[in-house]
């Protein structure tokens, strides 16, 4: 029917002809029996033999036409003899354009499939790989309208090959806008496809050039970076590029933090001091810049070079976020949506060709049907096809028509615009080197309309999916929502938005949607996010400043260790020292030959306990916890000791021990000057106790007097033991190397085996004696003042013993919560926490217990559980608050553990030096709720000891049975010794 097409000398085809059979040669005839098409692999050609006839030949022409020309040096010439038009040209047109028609059912299928992919991605489901990414953006709320300040905005990737810099002023007053100043720069093609550093250096140069023309200072500028590519964000200013999309393909950027790359480039440039505060996707900028209206604006839609949407999702639905409250803006990245079932039927041969020839074949299939970068190209492919088929331009294409990228979005928008008129279309086509007739103009307009209509309809189907998602997550019957729209396709294309809106109404009839074009192309929104990020960064700086004094370095800890050593030596010599170094009259650890039944009391920790300890070849314990009401702990001494005896009597009755006078060991966890094993003068109360008329008294006598008052009970008090000593003895029963006892609970203290010759005031020069250091009082002479913070001072001042137990008040469970509370109060007063609102709860003393600290810092707890704990305390939290409270707890407990470690290091070094050893292996028996329950305390103590006492190998043994068992063992040893002296 047709004569022939003539391809003149072209490199690409010459290459090809050398590889094909003689039948398929340089001349291609209609009706040829062999055709050639391109293989899947780019650049590889293969022979496709098909039976003769036109359709396969058309396929051949479609598939190789423009590609061949791209490779060629010269364009396709006009046919030798003018091509006759096919008689059925209208049918051809019809067939071609029909491919772009999408039915409502197909749109509904796309809507449903996209919704499914979104929900799958939200659930964090990895297999099958979701077709959209659903990336959390770290933007948690839509703007309040109160944001203010001057911001630089840099936009990269939204609009083709251009980069925009803006100067945005936010007034903080609703309705009062200042027009932003902006400048656009064209990014050279070689930069878009070159090395990443080149691109970021180019951006930094553009920034400087723009700022040079502004009356602004070179210092302290805050920048919001609009970077419109799929990125994994891990914070408002941390964002890793997943993959380039659209026309960009710079090397060395994928997998990198683009904020850091920009910061580096700005620094290399060196002209301005700019802080890159936030990074956002263009959809987020569009959403955040939306005018506050009557209904909430919760969706940001961009149809520009590419297309994408973001919306406000309930945080609890986003599996990758560890959040159960509030909302987070999620960038859907719907450009990557591809689903063979749903999209397959609407993909045309032109879509396939376009994808094939793009920079990223196989990727962003949905975007390639909608985005502005591709609409012109789709139109060009259709026009080239129709021209080759002789339907357009008398079958005579121009080189431009056959060159990729020659028809731009602007051309399409103008040609389709009915108001532009045929003359304008004519001019555009002429500029492409074509000679259009009137009928060509009309057909070209039809092609543009068809391609764009499909784009708008597909976009509507996807938007309808997002609206359905929003409606579902809000659990609302009807959704009233505003969609902020941005991008050149939305802004400049005459019919795009109206088709979009109409189709959305059709596909999501239950949603009442209004569309709000974004102001300033999203720049304002980026500035809004930047303002919020800048505020958060300022808060972080204040937090860091506040916590800095809690972060102790090696030198500070070594100084604590040295001071402790000095105080120990002085205390042992009987000189004035904050360490009392009290002799305990415990000279030996158990040897295993002790036997018998003993009673034990354990007073001074979290619980008051009465115990029955049976020592045979093993130790069996029966115990009961009794409460000591605060009124008793802080009432009269008589009341306290009567209460203790009542508890013992009750215990004896319950255990069937009434009438028996078992030897009793008394763990009394307060500083006592002992004159013997069964005599201990209470020096002063510590922790929460303050019973009157006890200080200066022998505690054993007070107990015996109470026993006498109670009558009818007989008790044989043999030994009084500090809890540190009880713990050391208890662990020493298992491990003979245990020569140190450590308590980190309500209070803190340590004891250890000292050479008797070093202990002033106790006769004898050989052997050992356990010394109760009472290290809680370390620093009461002011030696810790340089480390003490204003929060420590507040806690001390509000305690029942101001100025006393300064070391203990920096370490132990009774005080850490209070330190945290005082820091939180301070941060609230700075506006850093709880939106600056002081609550009654936070003003309440002791609302923070040790167990909260331990729970909050537990690794296995998700942030949402941390928040639940804090909310139980009545604290009104945002998600940023939760993280900051956690950091406060960490700083406080870390300092505590390190100080405790410095103390242990002093003790082990003392023992090593006492014995003149190069290296010492020693065990520490430890007890106390803070040490045992806190997730990191014990390892931090051990790490500090390793650092400060490298010549000591220290093993920490946790006491499992409390120091009551130790008290019983001390009693047993005493009984054994008493017996042996009688014998
Ligand atoms: C226990 C002892 O095991 O540890 C107590 O039996 C001691 O006497 C206590 O005071 C320390 O821990 P807390 O956390 O109870 O003060
Ligand atoms: C591309 C990008 C996306 C962006 C969109 C619109 O799809 O991947 O991040 O939002 O284009 O610019
Ligand atoms: C307090 C007491 C001390 C005790 C410690 C641990 O510091 O004064 O005796 O060992 O708490 O309970």
From TrEMBL:
<keyword id="KW-0547">Nucleotide-binding</keyword>
<dbReference type="GO" id="GO:0005739">
    <property type="term" value="C:mitochondrion"/>
</dbReference>
<comment type="pathway">
    <text>Carbohydrate degradation; glycolysis; D-glyceraldehyde 3-phosphate and glycerone phosphate from D-glucose: step 1/4.</text>
</comment>
<dbReference type="GO" id="GO:0006096">
    <property type="term" value="P:glycolytic process"/>
</dbReference>
<keyword id="KW-0324">Glycolysis</keyword>
<dbReference type="GO" id="GO:0001678">
    <property type="term" value="P:intracellular glucose homeostasis"/>
</dbReference>
<comment type="pathway">
    <text>Carbohydrate metabolism; hexose metabolism.</text>
</comment>
<dbReference type="InterPro" id="IPR019807">
    <property type="entry name" value="Hexokinase_BS"/>
</dbReference>
<dbReference type="InterPro" id="IPR022672">
    <property type="entry name" value="Hexokinase_N"/>
</dbReference>
<dbReference type="GO" id="GO:0005536">
    <property type="term" value="F:D-glucose binding"/>
</dbReference>
<comment type="function">
    <text>Catalyzes the phosphorylation of hexose, such as D-glucose and D-fructose, to hexose 6-phosphate (D-glucose 6-phosphate and D-fructose 6-phosphate, respectively). Mediates the initial step of glycolysis by catalyzing phosphorylation of D-glucose to D-glucose 6-phosphate.</text>
</comment>
<dbReference type="GO" id="GO:0019158">
    <property type="term" value="F:mannokinase activity"/>
</dbReference>
<dbReference type="InterPro" id="IPR022673">
    <property type="entry name" value="Hexokinase_C"/>
</dbReference>
<dbReference type="GO" id="GO:0008865">
    <property type="term" value="F:fructokinase activity"/>
</dbReference>
<dbReference type="Pfam" id="PF00349">
    <property type="entry name" value="Hexokinase_1"/>
</dbReference>
<keyword id="KW-0067">ATP-binding</keyword>
<dbReference type="GO" id="GO:0006006">
    <property type="term" value="P:glucose metabolic process"/>
</dbReference>
<feature type="domain" description="Hexokinase N-terminal">
    <location>
        <begin position="543"/>
        <end position="733"/>
    </location>
</feature>
<feature type="domain" description="Hexokinase N-terminal">
    <location>
        <begin position="93"/>
        <end position="291"/>
    </location>
</feature>
<dbReference type="InterPro" id="IPR043129">
    <property type="entry name" value="ATPase_NBD"/>
</dbReference>
<dbReference type="GO" id="GO:0005524">
    <property type="term" value="F:ATP binding"/>
</dbReference>
<dbReference type="Pfam" id="PF03727">
    <property type="entry name" value="Hexokinase_2"/>
</dbReference>
<dbReference type="InterPro" id="IPR001312">
    <property type="entry name" value="Hexokinase"/>
</dbReference>
<keyword id="KW-0808">Transferase</keyword>
<dbReference type="GO" id="GO:0004340">
    <property type="term" value="F:glucokinase activity"/>
</dbReference>
<feature type="domain" description="Hexokinase C-terminal">
    <location>
        <begin position="739"/>
        <end position="973"/>
    </location>
</feature>
<dbReference type="GO" id="GO:0005829">
    <property type="term" value="C:cytosol"/>
</dbReference>
<protein>
    <recommendedName>
        <fullName>Hexokinase-3</fullName>
        <ecNumber>2.7.1.1</ecNumber>
    </recommendedName>
</protein>
<keyword id="KW-0418">Kinase</keyword>
<keyword id="KW-0021">Allosteric enzyme</keyword>
<keyword id="KW-0677">Repeat</keyword>
<feature type="domain" description="Hexokinase C-terminal">
    <location>
        <begin position="299"/>
        <end position="532"/>
    </location>
</feature>
<comment type="similarity">
    <text>Belongs to the hexokinase family.</text>
</comment>
């Amino acid at each position: 029917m047709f004569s022939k097409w003539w391809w003149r000398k072209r490199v690409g085809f010459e290459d090809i002809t050398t590889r094909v059979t003689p039948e398929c040669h340089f001349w291609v005839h209609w009706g040829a029996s062999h055709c050639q098409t391109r293989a899947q692999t780019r650049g590889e050609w293969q022979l496709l033999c098909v039976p003769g006839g036109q359709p396969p030949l058309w396929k051949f022409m479609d598939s190789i036409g423009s590609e061949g020309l791209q490779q060629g040096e010269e364009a396709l010439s006009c046919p030798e003899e003018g091509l006759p038009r096919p008689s059925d040209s209208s049918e051809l047109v019809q067939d071609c354009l029909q491919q772009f028609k999408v039915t409502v059912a197909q749109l509904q299928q796309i809507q449903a499939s996209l919704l499914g992919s979104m929900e799958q991605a939200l659930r964090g489901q990895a297999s099958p790989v979701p077709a959209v990414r659903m990336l959390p953006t770290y933007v948690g709320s839509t703007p309040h309208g109160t944001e203010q300040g001057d911001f630089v905005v840099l936009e990269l990737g939204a609009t083709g090959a251009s980069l925009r810099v803006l100067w945005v002023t936010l007034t903080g007053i609703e309705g009062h806008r200042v027009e932003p100043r902006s400048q656009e720069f064209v990014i050279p093609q070689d930069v878009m496809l070159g090395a990443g550093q080149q691109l970021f250096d180019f951006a930094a140069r553009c920034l400087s050039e723009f700022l040079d023309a502004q009356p602004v200072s070179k210092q302290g500028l805050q920048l919001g970076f609009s970077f419109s590519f799929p990125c994994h964000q891990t914070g408002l200013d941390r964002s890793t590029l997943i993959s380039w999309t659209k026309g960009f393909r710079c090397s060395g950027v994928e997998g990198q933090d683009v904020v850091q790359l920009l910061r580096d480039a700005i620094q290399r440039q060196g002209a301005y001091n700019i802080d890159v505060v936030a990074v956002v996707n263009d959809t987020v900028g569009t959403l955040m810049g939306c005018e506050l209206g009557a209904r909430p604006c919760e969706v940001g839609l961009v149809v520009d070079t590419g297309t994408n949407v973001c919306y406000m999702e309930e945080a609890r639905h986003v599996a990758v976020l560890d959040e159960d409250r509030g909302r987070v803006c999620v960038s859907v990245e719907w450009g990557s949506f591809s689903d063979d079932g749903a999209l397959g039927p609407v993909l045309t041969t032109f879509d396939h060709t376009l994808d094939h020839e793009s920079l990223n074949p196989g990727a962003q299939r949905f975007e390639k049907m909608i985005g502005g970068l591709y609409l012109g190209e789709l139109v060009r492919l259709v026009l080239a096809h129709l021209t080759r088929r002789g339907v357009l331009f008398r079958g005579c294409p121009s080189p431009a028509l056959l060159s990729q990228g020659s028809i731009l979005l602007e051309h399409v928008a103008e040609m389709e615009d009915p108001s532009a008129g045929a003359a304008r279309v004519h001019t555009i086509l002429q500029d492409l080197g074509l000679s259009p007739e009137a009928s060509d103009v009309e057909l070209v307009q039809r092609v543009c309309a068809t391609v764009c209509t499909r784009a708008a309809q597909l976009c509507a189907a996807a938007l309808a999916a997002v609206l359905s998602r929003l409606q579902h997550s809000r659990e609302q019957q009807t959704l009233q929502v505003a969609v902020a729209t941005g991008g050149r396709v939305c802004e400049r294309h005459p019919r795009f938005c109206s088709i979009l809106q109409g189709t959305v109404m059709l596909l999501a009839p239950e949603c009442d949607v209004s569309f709000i074009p974004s102001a300033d192309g999203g720049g304002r929104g980026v500035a809004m996010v930047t303002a919020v990020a800048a505020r958060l960064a300022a808060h972080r700086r204040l937090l860091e400043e506040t916590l800095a004094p809690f972060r102790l370095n090696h030198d500070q800890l070594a100084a604590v260790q040295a001071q402790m050593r000095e105080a120990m030596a002085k205390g042992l010599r009987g000189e004035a020292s904050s360490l009392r170094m009290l002799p305990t009259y415990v000279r030996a650890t158990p040897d295993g030959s002790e036997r018998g039944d003993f009673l034990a009391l354990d007073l001074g920790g979290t619980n008051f306990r009465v115990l029955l300890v049976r020592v045979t070849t093993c130790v069996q314990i029966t115990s009961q916890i009794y409460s000591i009401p605060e009124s008793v702990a802080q009432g009269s001494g008589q009341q306290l000791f009567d209460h203790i005896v009542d508890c013992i009597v009750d215990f004896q009755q319950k255990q069937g021990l009434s009438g028996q006078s078992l030897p009793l060991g008394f763990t009394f966890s307060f500083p006592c000057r002992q004159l013997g094993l069964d005599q201990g003068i209470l020096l002063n109360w510590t922790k929460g106790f303050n019973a009157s008329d006890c200080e200066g008294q022998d505690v054993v006598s007070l107990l015996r007097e109470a026993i006498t008052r109670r009558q009818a009970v007989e008790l044989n008090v043999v030994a009084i033991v500090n809890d540190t000593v009880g713990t050391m003895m208890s662990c020493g029963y298992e491990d003979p190397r245990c020569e140190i006892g450590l308590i980190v609970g309500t209070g803190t203290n340590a004891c250890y085996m000292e050479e008797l010759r070093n202990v002033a005031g106790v006769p004898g020069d050989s052997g050992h004696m356990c010394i109760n250091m009472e290290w809680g009082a370390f620093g009461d002479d002011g030696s810790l003042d340089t480390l003490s913070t204003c929060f420590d001072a507040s806690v001390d001042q509000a305690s029942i013993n101001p100025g006393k137990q300064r070391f203990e008040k920096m370490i132990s469970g009774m005080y850490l919560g209070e330190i945290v509370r005082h820091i939180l109060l301070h941060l609230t007063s700075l506006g850093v926490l709880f939106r600056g609102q002081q609550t009654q709860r936070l003003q309440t003393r002791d609302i923070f217990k040790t167990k909260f600290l331990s729970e909050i810092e537990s690794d296995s707890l998700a942030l949402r559980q941390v928040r639940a704990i804090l909310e139980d305390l009545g604290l009104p939290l945002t998600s940023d608050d939760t993280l900051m409270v956690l950091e406060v707890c960490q700083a406080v407990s870390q300092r505590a553990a390190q100080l405790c470690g410095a103390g242990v290091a002093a003790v082990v070094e003392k023992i090593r030096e006492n014995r003149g050893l190069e290296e010492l292996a020693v065990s520490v028996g430890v007890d106390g709720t803070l040490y045992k329950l806190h997730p990191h305390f014990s390892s931090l103590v051990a790490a500090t000891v390793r650092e400060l006492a490298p010549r000591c190998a220290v093993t920490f043994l946790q006491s499992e049975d409390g120091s009551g068992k130790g008290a019983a063992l001390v009693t047993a040893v005493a009984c054994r010794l008493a017996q042996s002296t009688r014998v």
